[in-house]
Amino acid sequence: MNKSLMAMEALQTPEVVATQLSANLQQSMSLAAQFRRQAPSAIMMVGRGTSDHAGMFAKYLFEIELGIPVLLAAPSVGGIYKRTLALTDCLVILISQSGQSPDIVNQAKLAKAGGALCLAIVNDADSPLAKAVDKVLPLHAGPEKAVAATKSYLASLTALGQLTALWSQNHALLTAVSHLPETLKEAQFHPAVISAEEFRGVTNCMVLGRGLGYAIALELALKLKEVLGIHAEAFSSAEFLHGPVTLVAHSLTVLNIVIEDESHAVHQQQMQEIRRRGARVINIDVTTDTHPRMYPLLVMQRCYLDIENVAQSFNLDPDSPPGLKKVTETE
């Protein structure tokens, strides 16, 4: 079985993260000190697709660790409805692998016009997005040629983790971030959590989590759609019980993102109810020791490799999802 670009790039993640953590340390320390001196009143996250999922991860991470409200941008407000928001004293963080998507670049310009300080987390430090913002944290991920993003997503979460740990001065979190190259490598050798046998014949499924687990459930569901062609939807387990749970009566497959943090007990209670109603539940749990805020990165590292392997088993090309290309241009 030949290794796809998706697999090779996912396997590069520990090296990418090690390079990024070292290269970005001084810039991240400077930003953290600046934000401690004058904290933004709110943070807006801007991104599309995988980068938008990184924004959801940032929402939980910043709100839990820093207590600053975080909102996810609706790019259509500026792009289609031509409305500039009042963003004085706000920090706007724009995440993009390529830095070339016109709508994201436009968001940076509109945010600056609205009074925001704009920070780009971007792989191409010479891209139009990098040139449009006030500050840049490069991903240092190198070329990412696979349509399904892997290492750039995990590098985005790493950049967010390093900034948060330095900003909050949470030494336990900073230690976990600094050890990510090793723990991500361990996750690569962890037994598979998604197998071809479990997904044979599956055309629809749900991915459920709480908090940071829900944030990565969005990314996992996207990869199931992109790479395997499975109709997968992500929900908070709490939201799932408010209506969509009726779907489990049809022998629905449910992926359970297990994150042992403050949300764990209530999430597992909700999953027990979902099992009781007849769902077929697959636990997504990587038994590697790290800070609970960084544990989701290890889950996604393992899941990327598993999804690629399932695609190969199903004779699907993980590098050529139908109808997709690397840079998507929208307004």
Automatic annotation (TrEMBL):
Give the SUPFAM superfamilies listed for this entry.
SIS domain (SSF53697)
Quote the Gene3D superfamilies the UniProt record gives: Glucose-6-phosphate isomerase like protein, domain 1
Which residues are listed as membrane-spanning?
Answer: none
UniProt-recorded Gene Ontology molecular function terms: carbohydrate derivative binding; transaminase activity
Q: Name one GO biological process term.
A: carbohydrate derivative metabolic process
Q: Where is the SIS domain?
A: 31-183, 195-331
Whether Electron transport counts among this entry's keywords is: no
The alphabetical list of record keywords is: Aminotransferase, Repeat, Transferase
Q: Which Pfam families match?
A: SIS (PF01380)
Q: What is this protein called?
A: Glutamine--fructose-6-phosphate aminotransferase
Q: Which species is listed as the source?
A: Alteromonas lipolytica
